[in-house]
């Protein structure tokens, strides 16, 4: 057998050209013959959504497990969703949380923001991002092909979506801090979301320390710097709207100047 090298990008070109079956076969060769973990994630994604192959959540689950260590947490995020909804495997909220935490630690910003929310709320909310793909680039997907559970349903105290998670300000702050430090080329607009939420946490005095869950001191200046960064440099609409509707509260001169510029531009 000739010594061959495997070029994953050839499969990506085929996928972008709409040649899904050929792309699937290329990635499958990369996964099964060359043990390429990222290709395994691509195979899983194509199985999940039926690109070039009959849709199979079971096979997608298998290949996400295979490719989980070859990316920055996207495969682990998708496994968390599979366990949350019982796709291709038995539904398990503890396993969903396990893989979501693994995804966050590996660097997936969608997992970091999701966990920040669940640590603050104390229950497993329904994820708004139902999958994350890296084919051909990092992209969160929002329009699920299956009915979502209601994330805002009234839950009893013994509901597994409550008992699986331990409410924790410090863990929420840790996740928001990780998300806010992401590279913009990877995370896009989510950085603005993370910095806006971290600013709100600073305004509320949420704790960074697990032994001080009752809260820490409010940090207005750090919060305002995060808010300005989210609005000015990352285009966060939430941050921009917050600035314009809290005109009398700010101490940071740059925030006041930003507010005045926005006020003037709205008159043009």
Coarse morphology? globular
Total of helices: 14
The description of the largest β-sheet is: 2 strands, antiparallel
Helix content: 55-70%
Structural class estimated from helices and strands: mainly alpha
Number of strands: 2
Helix and strand string, N-terminal first? HHHHHHHEEHHHHHHH
Provide the gyration radius in Å.
21 Å
Relative strand content: under 5%
Global mean pLDDT:
87
As an assembly, this protein is: single chain
> Which strand order does the major sheet show?
1-2
What ranges have pLDDT less than 50 throughout 5 or more consecutive residues?
A: 148-153
* N/C terminus separation: 71 Å
Structure description:
The chain has a domain at 182-268. The protein has 14 helices and 2 strands; from the N terminus they run αααααααββααααααα. It has helices spanning 8-16, 20-32, 37-49, 57-67, 74-85, 93-106, 109-121, 160-163, 169-180, 184-187, 190-204, 220-232, 237-245, 253-267, and strands at 131-133, 139-141. A two-stranded antiparallel ribbon has the order 1-2.
